[in-house]
Amino acid sequence: MKLKALFLALAVAGAGASFALADDGHNKASDTTSTSTTTTSETPKCPRAELRGTLTSVSATSFTMTVTKANHGENALVGQTATVAVDAKTRVSWDGVGTFTGPNTNDDVTVHARQCGDATGTITAQSVKAHTPHADKAGKHDAAKK
Predict the structure, then answer these.
(1) Helix, strand, coil percent values for the chain (each to nearest 5)
(2) For 81, which DSSP code?
(3) pLDDT value of residue 13
(4) Residue 14: is its pLDDT beyond 70?
(5) Which CATH number fits domain 48-133: 2.40.50.320, 3.90.1570.10, 3.40.50.1000, 3.40.50.2000?
(6) HEC sequence for 3-72
(7) pLDDT of 66 above 90
(8) Global pTM?
(9) How far is the C-alpha of 78 from the C-alpha of 54, rounded, in Å?
């Protein structure tokens, strides 16, 4: 019986505390309702861009490439030269033969990036994978040109 009385007392105390702490929407200092408006700026949309192609120039903060394949949203870049920015978060890997320099012009490249802003916005790479062209691929291009 003592336990039932204890639980009943706790329940009544908890209910009373919840009503005491509940906010009724009034400012207690002036007894008026206050409403505030916050303005939020829209974050620019940055859709993914997946590009494949050939490097045409390389610098420390960006590179240019001739795009041969692209995801659906970036199809307009196929056949064009695209400039891709590289920042401190970009993961870069390069696979080459014979030297320790690279990536170099004419290397094949696959880029996963974000393009912020409109269709002409900056393309910033999240990851870049470059490698020297395969010997059989280079041979096919040379044979096709003859």
Answers:
(1) 25, 35, 40
(2) E
(3) 64
(4) no
(5) 2.40.50.320
(6) HHHHHHHHHHHHHHHHHHHCCCCCECCCCECCCCCCCCCCCCCCCEEEEEEEEEEECCCEEEEEEEEECH
(7) yes
(8) 0.59
(9) 12
